[in-house]
Amino acid sequence: MAKKEETKQAETPAIFMPSDLIAAAAHFNTSPEVMAGALYGVTDGLTLEDAAERLKKFITKPVTDAAAAAADGEQKGE
After folding, report:
1. Could you give the CA distance from residue 19 to residue 35 in angstroms, rounded to a whole number?
2. Residue 35 in contact with residue 55, Cβ under 8 Å?
3. How would you write the pLDDT of the chain (78 residues) with one tens digit per residue?
4. How far apart are CA 36 and CA 30, in angstroms?
5. Domain ranges within the chain, ordered by starting residue
């Protein structure tokens, strides 16, 4: 019966709070600042896989220049 309990525990993924994941950013080969950006707005715990997926999406997200986009909108409105 002890074996069944051990396998159930092994199947449950570990949950980490965002502050812990940010502190352990080196585990993901990134800086704490980048990890904080990837986890921005997250208040619940995450698995390592979920954190890695959010980090990948954050890093590959295209960067836009908000000021240039606003200026383009103003010029079109004239």
Report:
1. 10
2. yes
3. 556 666 566 688 999 999 999 999 999 999 999 999 999 999 999 999 999 999 999 999 988 887 666 666 666 554
4. 10
5. 12-71
